[in-house]
Amino acid sequence: MDRKEYDQMADELQPTGHKVKNGFNAFLYGGVMGVIAQGVLDFYMNILDVSEKDATPMMVITLVFVACLLTGLGLYDNIAKHAGAGTFIPITGFANSMTSSALDSKTEGLIMGIGSNMFKLGGTVITYGIVSASLLGVIRYVIALLW
Amino acid sequence: MNYIMSFLFSGLVCFLAQIIYDNSKLTPGHITSLFVVLGSFLDLFHIYDRLIEIFHAGALIPITSFGHSLMHGAMAATKQYGIFGVAIGMFDLTAAGITAAILFGFLVAIIFKPKS
User: Is residue A25 part of a domain?
Assistant: First the structure.
């Protein structure tokens, strides 16, 4: 039995209940993340008396800070084990990927380790975000000119 | 009401990502990249703005909102700077998130010891 056959067999034997449970957990944890974000957003809107638009970056900074701290303490991975996509899809997953990359390569030094490896996992989001937003932004600009 | 809407939308996006993750060979890196592109695409005709109006934080917290913010900043700046605005305004709205992630990520890496 070669590797391919093994993978195929393993896929077939994988219980489907497993996937249902994963999907449910992702929904639950992702939803809770949305509720926490809403709570932080409302908090800043009430305390500082700002609009939702102005409170958004404050909320993002707060959640990113918490996610980085939890990663440093080694707690984020424990949550991620159960939550799956519920932890990597929210913006906190981006913070987690940056922090864990930096932390894991700490032994390689400040420059070659932390400095150059920080974006190893999270960089892809920025790269494709910018490439797609640039292309679509130009398209949108041209459409607006012609309309 | 906002809390229920937030829960439902954020949960749904994560659920879809988990379905893709479980039924394909894609890594979280692939899926987050895909969702960012999706977010910026949904902003092309201001659909994502409508989603934020309806679902509030639920639409702001998934990584799709990152693509939306990049696109939104770029488009807003084209009004003032023309085609150059795409590059000039790109980070206008996402600067906070990226700066915070780099800064706190760096500090955590300096202070804490790797677990694994």
Answer: yes
Residue B39 near residue B68, CB atoms below 8 Å:
yes
Structural domain contains residue A82: yes
> Per-residue pLDDT for A11 more than 70?
no
What confidence tier does B55 reach under pLDDT thresholds 50, 70, 90? very high
Judged by CB atoms closer than 8 Å, whether chains meet at B57 and A89 is answered as no
Question: How many Cα atoms are found within 13 Å in the side-chain-facing hemisphere of A14?
Answer: 15
Domains contained in chain A, number: 1
Provide, as residue numbers in chain A, all residues whose Cβ is less than 8 Å from the Cβ of B14: 26-27, 29-31, 33, 83-86, 89-90
B interface mutation test: which of A8, A11, A14, A35 has the most B CBs within 10 A? A35
Specify if A90 maps to a domain: yes
Which domain range does residue A95 map to? 3-104
Nearest chain B residue to A69, by CA: B108
